[in-house]
C-alpha cells in the first residue's frame, strides 16, 4: 500500500477512537512539510477566487477525519445556501479589514514549511514556525489575540476528539479554521486550513491541505567522560 493511502486509512481509524485517542494525543515535535503530497505554500491565499471554486489545494483528497468544530457556532449542520458537498455558497463580499486579515494569515501560513509544536502540557498548544515566531494557544477555548506581521487576530483553540482546532476570527461571521490531525502510526500530521462563513466552508475559497513528517529527535550531547 502506498504511504499516502496508509496515512488516509490511519487517520480514518484514529477518528473512530475519539475519547481514547484524545487522552493520548501529543502533537509535540519538529515537523517538516512533505511537499510531494501538500499544497503549495508559496501560493497560499484565503481570499475568494471564483476561478478556483470547489477545488482543493493540496496533494490529497478527503478521508482525513478532520471535522473541525464548526467555527464559532460549533455547528456541523447543513445551512441554507450551501452546496451539495456541504460547503457554503459564495456569500457576501469580504470587507477591506477582512481581506487585510486574510492576507496577513496567508503570509503567516507561508512560513509553515517546518513547525515545532510543544504540547506536553495538554492545557496549551504552542506552534513555532520556520522563522522562529511562536504562538501559544490555551486549549480550553479561551479567546487570545495572536500577533501577526502588522496586526493581531483573535483565536480560540480546543479539542475536537483527537484533533486540535484553532479558529481565527476574521470578521463578524467569518473564521479561518486550522485543524491539526495526528497519525502516530505513520509519524505524520495533517493541517487543514479553510475559510468558514457563518460556520460553513466557503465554496469559492479552496481548502489548503498540508502534510508533515515528524523529524527524528536530535541525539543528546554526551554529559562528559567517565572518571
What do these coordinates show?
- The chain is an alpha+beta fold and 227 residues long.
- It has one domain (3-214): Lipocalin.
- It has helices at residues 3-16, 18-24, 96-109; strands at 29-33, 114-118, 124-128, 134-138, 144-147, 152-160, 163-169, 174-183, 188-197, 200-201, 208-214.
- Strands 1, 2, 3, 4, 5, 6, 7, 8, 9, 10 and 11 form an 11-stranded antiparallel β-sheet that branches.
- The longest helix is centred in the first third of the chain and has 14 residues, at 3-16.
Offer a quick outline of the entry.
The protein is 15% helix and 30% strand. It has 227 residues and is of the alpha+beta class.
Shape: globular
CATH fold annotation = Lipocalin
Q: Compute the gyration radius: what is it?
A: 18 Å
Termini separation: 52 Å
Query: What integer is the average pLDDT?
Result: 79
Which segments are poorly predicted (pLDDT under 50) over 5 or more consecutive residues? 1-21, 51-64, 67-71, 73-87
**Beta fraction:** 25-35%
- The assigned CATH architecture is Beta Barrel
Domain tally: 1
Under CATH at level 1, the class stands as Mainly Beta
| Name of the CATH homologous superfamily | Calycin beta-barrel core domain
Helix share of residues? Answer: 10-25%
Instruction: Provide the structure class.
Output: alpha+beta
Q: Tell me the total number of β-strands.
A: 11
